Amino acid sequence: MVVHSASEQVLAGLDPEQRAAVTAPAGPVCILAGAGTGKTRAITSRIAHRALSGDISPRHVLAVTFTARAAAEMRHRISLLGVRGVQARTFHAAALRQVRYFAPRLLAGRAMPELLDSKVRLVTLAAARVGLRTDRAAARDLAGEIEWAKSSLVEPGEYVVAAARALRDTPHEPAKVADVFTAYEQLKRSNGVIDFEDMLRAAVWGVEEHPDVAEQVRGQYRHFVVDEYQDVNPLQQRLLDAWLGGRNDLTVVGDASQTIYSFTGATSSYLVDFPRRHRNATVVRLVRDYRSTPQVVGLANAVISQARGTEARLRLELSGQRPPGPEPDLRIFTDEPAEANAVAARCRSLIDAGTPAKEIAVLFRVNAQSEAYEKALTEAEVPYVVQGAERFFERAEVRQAMVALRSATRSIPGETPLPTAVVEALTAVGWSPDAPPAGGAARERWEALAALVQLAEEYAATPEVLPIGEAASVERPVTLTDFTEELANRAAQQHVPTVDGVTLASLHSAKGLEWDAVFLVGLAEGTLPTTYAKTVEQVEEERRLLYVGITRARQWLWLSYAAARSPGGRARRPSRFLPQLDRSGGTERAATGTGPARRPERRRTQIMSCRICGATLLAGPDRKLGRCPTCPSDIDDELHERLREWRQRVAGAQKVPAYVVFTDATLTALAERRPGRPEELIAIAGIGPRKLGLYGESVLALVGGAGVDDVCPEKTFEIQS
């Protein structure tokens, strides 16, 4: 019996690309890993294989990533492979550990300063010092700008130029932001505290400026692994370079197509430029997707194949490894309430059919979109949880607005149209119907209050019907008091605590997660891409957000958008990132749950995948054939010839060109797919109900083996009027 060594056992079950990554020689290694391709397995197996084969000592390894959850998963997997002692931490945790350890040496015996949990309080004080009054949202945006600057190694005096060069959408005039930045740094020093960026800088300073510290750190850590390398910012890269100290035993793993955090200072440039910065680097591409069905993978490939720019240079074409699954659906609805109700109904049916609620996710571009889905899921009695944000009615700005609306019922005349009354009341909490402010947090606050105005417009469109007598009734316009009661009822319904439920999350919050069923909603121009994406680079990041959303789905994928935001509202176009599909099919009527008299039309477009490789089919001829033009044909040549002869006779009898009966592509599709039933025949693009009625019986007979003379015995095919 052959006994394999522990290091060889680590290689068991790896695919060829994963094995190449695991066994790559010491030195710079870049693993380009697409979504669902087993990157964590590859890097943990690489660490274990090297340790078990005696190439490295586990205690000399430092693996860094971006979340404590990912670091814990790394440690767990490495231990399961039989290796102990590897340090797997976030950048901040690794830096904090080193700074605390070396603080007495670096600070002349003094303890490390207190670490700020949040910048907001000091930023608020700094803004007041330079004459800016800020609320919490504005302070969060200023704090975000300071974090971006410090992560990008930008000093206060350099901020104005750096912000202009980076095309930053600053929350205030750049010179004023720079003043707040300066005042913030002064307040920090006077209070004897540091922030997280200071901690990273202290770790860099300790290694770069203190030879004894550098010697000890570099003696401890000799082999480095960096996960999600596309998300590294300049400050983190500076720390990594300090740790390396010119050595090159570095393994990085990343996917440029999942670069979605550039607004925080993260940049994929270090991943893109890795082979140039590290000569003789080994580059391995992981492209076998074990997460999603070939249908989902094919759509993801189709979306990202249109990408342009720097990140597109490292674009990966994934290959689905799971058994085939259902085709993704593209659904088009008349308005957002109809879209939300349809999503809730589908979630209900999935759960009733056995899919756990926790394996379902509804993903959207901004958190303000969640309210419609919270309401629809509540009415459908579907439990849900909100990922990465508070529930809509629990948000501070919404609670404050509801107080303002209740107060306004005493001061605004009752005959004031409801939308006007709501806008007037919200001005008391600083909201304006004009363009939203710059800055992420302030804009999110504005959008949440704008969602209340939209709710008011929808609510005002359904006046209350009061009974007058047995044969008569009268409509009463809804008032602000009615609306505040409606909001209170919605809040009460949605505050029921849940332990397990459908996940509602923004696309950014969904990064790194996966579910059996994923609903990507609100895929309209102006939402995805957002209207705030002005540059080519910003638009491309929006495309990558959709790609990330698609690749979260294992089995079922739904993509939808509403032709209008609210009933009767202005028409919108679908997102430019969606495949350009043939939408000439029929329509369906669907109840929306918004009232017995309201049954808006929805359209359903099936996204077709290659029946051989699973790639999404976009071109009309490819959709007819049901396969890519490069995939092997399984055509029945004898059947194809009989179909051609039959078509020639029919066309001659009807005195029309042959293509009017069936095109060449349709004949090829028939000879390849060989339909046996009418429903299979009509599924072929180009064969609608009319042609099914005219030719269906003959075609099915030919496919079944009949001769041309059997189906055309002196018969003319006159078209019925």
Q: What is the β-strand count? A: 20
Given helix and strand content, the structural type is: alpha/beta
> What is the terminal separation in angstroms?
79 Å
Total tally of structural domains: 5
The number of helices is 29
* Mean pLDDT value: 84
- The CATH class of the largest domain is Alpha Beta
Which residues form runs of ≥5 with pLDDT under 50?
464-474, 581-602, 715-721
Quick tags:
721 residues, alpha/beta, Rossmann fold, Arc Repressor Mutant, subunit A, 5 domains, 8-stranded mixed β-sheet, 6-stranded parallel β-sheet, 20 strands
What does it look like?
It is a single chain. The chain is α/β, with parallel strands linked by helices. It folds into five domains: 6-106 and 199-286, P-loop containing nucleotide triphosphate hydrolases (Rossmann fold, 3-Layer(aba) Sandwich); 117-193, Orthogonal Bundle (Arc Repressor Mutant, subunit A); 289-383 and 497-585, P-loop containing nucleotide triphosphate hydrolases (Rossmann fold); 396-438 and 447-494, no CATH class; 609-720, DNA polymerase, domain 1 (Orthogonal Bundle), CATH 1.10.150. 45% of the residues lie in helices and 12% in strands. The protein has an eight-stranded mixed sheet, sandwiched between helices. A six-stranded parallel sheet has the order 3-2-6-7-1-8. A two-stranded parallel sheet has the order 4-5. β2 (61-65), α4 and β3 (87-90) form a beta-alpha-beta unit. α19 packs antiparallel against α20. The longest helix is centred in the middle third of the chain and has 21 residues, at 440-460. The radius of gyration is 30 Å and the shape is flat. The chain starts with 5 loop residues before the first helix and ends in a 10-residue tail after the last helix.
